[in-house]
Amino acid sequence: GNNFDLTSDISMGVIAAVGYGNSWQTKRGTRGYGDLEGDGLRSAFQQDRLSTQNTIDTNALATIGFEAFSDHEIKFTGLVTRSSEKEARIITGENNEDVDQRLDALEWVEQQLWSTQVQGEHFLPQVMDMKVEWRASYSEALRDAPYQLSNIYNINDAGVPILSTSPAANRMQFSKVEDDTTDFGIDGTLPMTRDGECTFLCEADLKFGYSYVENDRAATSLLYDINGVGGTDRTQRLDYIYDYIFRSGVGSITEVAGEQFPQFYVATLEIDAAYAGIDAQITPYIRAALGVRFEDAIEAIDTQNISGDLTGNTVEGVIDQSDWLPALTITWNPIEDLQVRGGYSETLTRPQFRELAPAVFVNTETDATFFGNPYLVNASIKNYDLRGEYYFARDQFVTLGLFYKDLENPIEEILAGTETIQTTFINVPSAKLYGFEVEYEQLLPFDQWTGLGFFDDREVQVKTNYTWSDSEIGADGEVAFNIGTNLNPVRGTTTAAGRLEDGRRMQGQSEHLFNVQLGLLNEEAQSEYNLLFNYVSERIRSGENGNLPAILEQPPMTVDFVWNKRFQSGSGQYEFSLNIENILQEDYEAFQERGGDRVDVDTYEQGTIFSIGLKRMF
Question: What pLDDT sits at residue 258?
């Protein structure tokens, strides 16, 4: 990066970066699923999982900006990031029919995002010192899985794997998701100040803006059963299977499509939004911000079979809605370094395309299949916040925040299958979320406290955050779901109490979140040591299905160490870094519990990661 003065009034800045990474990860663990047994839970199946994944990441960023007459800035940004993943996976053990099996799977997935943006900022002293900011961007995202192969082997009494002849035992899949997003927005701020001596409403900023977002998606999933190749031993597998099909003519391929497996969907989301508000200094100690945002949005999903007859085709999921979303914040400064803020706002959450589309996809991280629900609606949220902040110095503070959220129709992922792991999405009738947060950040004067000369040129920095929260869902009402096929859905309803456990925590919400960063900074030696600790308590990964208990997950507690050291070599300045991640080597665990019984659903070991880096400063 660099900055250039083109004239006495115009300057140009340029920043460019490229990156490349190549990493490997091996996971050893278990896969399973629970089934009801009386008042308890038994294991429907429990299998060993071994996988290795190679990930190659590349990225590039370029920004060029111009500043003119100190009042105008225009910036152009281009970004591209790409990730390619190849995974080989072996799962062994008895299935839900007590047959000893082995699953071999190969996957190749490419993901790419590129984005271009232009944005401007203008100060207009001739128009009452108004400030105008605008932006326009276009982005495209791609997820392409051009090769996914899975084969199941039955282990005979002699321990020999025999390629299964069961339907759907040997499959190939090809899928692609293409997204493009257009975004435009403009924001204005008009300051208003009263002249002379003033004690009430002395100054205010009028704020207004408009934004337009359009997101379009086309998603394809092609699934093929490999037939007529079973009954051979393990030596005839993977690449040999293709020899059978394409050379010897032994095997054949059948396309899996139809009512339950639509191959294609298109989706669109279009949002027009405008807002207006005022941020005013009411008294020397009280400031208030009041505003409202209006959104007019339409979201639609259309699922099809690629070669199917589109006569009479219907758009399965449509949400066409307009909303007024008010917000109010009041800030009180009783003393110079203390401020107390209280706020109220209304927000909403829209279903993601994958949550709305009634098409079957596979979560490659968990091997669970999921399908959307075209009868989802937007979730409405009322937010109440109270926060106190005390500042010791710049960027050194302690804060305490209280929050409460009242949710209507929150969207959750729940279990849908009884013998295999399948999930779908529903609107929970209601929920509430509440808790508090404590945040603390300070440079500690150890030299004054201890009198040790060691701390004369060193500083100890502490950053910590703790959040406690709880939530309750309400099952008083009905939930809507599809009782037809995925290609031709039919809206059905059932009582929420028959599907959901009234009063349980919300999906994805942990009771405890805690992180600490301890740093030892030495400016003279240009070195920095940091020890980082992060803990997240148990949470629901997928909600329950009637009496079948939810899948819970316990993310691993992590302890990391980071050392950065700057040094001079010749005419250049460099920075060396050493990172040690997951020192405790905690495992990931996902499981089901009922009546004191526990079934592991997805567990795997996580090792310690060592990495070093060298950076040249120009």
Answer: 79
Output the pTM of the full model.
0.90
User: By the 8 A CB rule, do 428 and 455 touch?
Assistant: no
Please report how many Cα atoms fall inside a 13 Å half-sphere around the Cα of residue 592, on the Cβ side. Answer: 27
- Distance of alpha carbon 124 from its chain centroid, rounded? 39
Q: Let me know: does 33 contact 44? Beta carbons within 8 Å.
A: yes
Encoded tokens for 186: 């403009």
Q: What does the pLDDT average to over 326-335?
A: 96
Beta strands in 351-458 (DSSP E): 360-363, 368-371, 379-393, 396-408, 411-415, 422-427, 430-444
Q: Please count the other Cβ atoms lying within 10 Å of the Cβ belonging to residue 373.
A: 25
Residue 246: what pLDDT? 58
Q: Quote the tokens at residue 255.
A: 């396309």
- Choice between 546 and 469, residue whose per-residue pLDDT is larger: 469
CA distance 560 to 609: 9
DSSP state of 320: E
Per DSSP, 500 falls in state S
Q: For residue 381, what pLDDT is reported?
A: 98
Nearest residue to 298 via CA among 273, 280, 279: 273
* Structural Rg of the chain based on CA atoms: 29
Which of 67-76, 166-175, 351-360 is predicted with the least confidence, judged by mean pLDDT? Answer: 166-175
Query: Per mean pLDDT, which range of 7-11, 82-86, 270-274, 592-596 is the poorest?
Result: 592-596
Would you say 314 and 282 are in contact if contact means Cβ atoms under 8 Å apart? no
For residues 52 and 115, is the Cβ–Cβ distance under 8 A? no
Buried b (16+ CB within 10 A) or exposed e, 401-427: bebebebbbbbbbbbbeeeebbbbbbb
* Tally of CB atoms within 10 A around 298: 14
Beta carbons of 473 and 500 less than 8 angstroms apart? yes
Q: Model confidence at 242, in pLDDT bands (50, 70, 90)?
A: low
Q: CA-CA distance, 465 to 514, in Å (whole number)?
A: 6
pLDDT of residue 437: 98
Which token pair is 149? Answer: 């192969």
Proportion of the chain above pLDDT 90, given as a percent? 66
